[in-house]
Amino acid sequence: MSMMKPALISLLTIWPFTASACETALILTIDVSNSIDVAEYRLQTDGLADALRDPEIIEALISGETAISVVQWSGADRQAVSVPWRRIRTALDAEYLANQARVMERAFVLSDTAPAEAIYFSLDLFGDVSDCKRKVIDVSGDGTPNSGSDVRLARIAAERAGVTINGIAIESMGLAITGFYKSALITRNGFVITARTHREYPAAIRAKILREISKIIG
For 86-97, what is each residue's pLDDT tens digit? Predict the structure, then answer.
């Protein structure tokens, strides 16, 4: 044992271990219902991938060892984890996540819009990141519900679980989406960012992620 201690001390000096804590667990949910065409889906995935490669966002993600997962959703029985939880501890982690987001295949086509079920599905995923201090669901979509359960009840369930819901309202059909998100979907401590068209989504998702994780770096 006496011969091993100097070697151990030497290793710790070269590679010091510092405990870090996850500040935020963020689920990015993407609407892939019938109203989203092929080009619009690509705008969402490319916009998300580009945001995750942004130097300012990468710095903030690493600072809080943020955990991120990506979910695609549409109808009442149509939710899927496209990118499982990943802890962002290094720039390579962020790069891997961005690459996964860019190449992920569309999970559903020709399906309804059920944001309540997307929320319930996402709430169940937080059990794998229970050590994270803040838990956030990021809902993006371009339509109001035409199937599934009451979104307001899903919002209440999130608030009771201590989970924040934020939204990106894609206004391809007018201002009704932003109004619906504000009145029925986001939690009391949440916010909505409006993208006037799908082409504004990349800038909106960058601003939204940065705002969501900026709380962990002041």
Answer: 999 999 999 999
Tens digit of pLDDT for each residue in 59-115? Answer: 999 999 999 999 999 999 999 999 999 999 999 999 999 999 999 999 999 899 999
Q: Cα–Cα distances in Å, from 200 out to 29, 113, 154, 156, 206?
A: 17, 21, 27, 30, 10
The full set of domain ranges for the chain reads 18-214
| Whole-prediction pTM | 0.87
Q: What is the CATH number of domain 18-214?
A: 3.40.50.410
Check: CB of residue 178 under 8 Å from CB of residue 166. Answer: no
Burial state string for 179-216 with b = 16 or more CB within 10 A and e = fewer than 16: ebbeebbbbeebebbbbeebebbbebbbebbeebbeeb
Residue in the block written with tokens 């109001």? 144
